[in-house]
């Protein structure tokens, strides 16, 4: 499976999202807002450089990184966290892992 240089995805369901947000210690008001949203994801990649846009009526979030290079993702505007992230390409798929959250 190879991704096209640009892909767009629309959220169709949020199964267990409230439990997930609660486990991340996200406050109740923000959890309720998130559960109302149906954000779109736009993914643009050229080689190992990727741009992932999360677009919603509440807030847009843009993440830009190089595959295979660990980086700090500042999610304070989204949910108050900062964490180290590593995206890898494994068997034709892109996999992301939050290495350390603070």
From TrEMBL:
UniProt xrefs under InterPro entries: Calycin, ILBP, Lipocln_cytosolic_FA-bd_dom
Domain Lipocalin/cytosolic fatty-acid binding: 11-86
Top-rank lineage group of the source organism: Eukaryota
Transmembrane segments: none
GO terms of molecular function: lipid binding
Pfam family, one: Lipocalin
Family of the protein in this entry: Belongs to the calycin superfamily. Fatty-acid binding protein (FABP) family.
PANTHER family named in the record: FATTY ACID BINDING PROTEIN (PTHR11955)
Protein name listed in UniProt: Lipocalin/cytosolic fatty-acid binding domain-containing protein
Organism: Canis lupus familiaris
């Amino acid at each position: 499976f190879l991704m096209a240089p640009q892909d767009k995805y629309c959220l169709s369901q949020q199964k267990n999202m409230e439990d997930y947000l609660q486990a991340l210690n996200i406050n109740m008001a923000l959890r309720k807002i998130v559960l109302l949203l149906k954000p779109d994801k736009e993914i643009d990649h050229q080689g190992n450089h990727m741009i992932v846009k999360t677009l919603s009526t509440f807030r847009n979030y843009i993440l830009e990184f190089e595959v295979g290079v660990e980086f700090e993702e500042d999610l304070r505007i989204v949910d108050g966290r900062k964490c180290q992230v590593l995206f890898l390409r494994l068997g034709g798929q892109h996999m992301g892992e939050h290495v350390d959250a603070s």
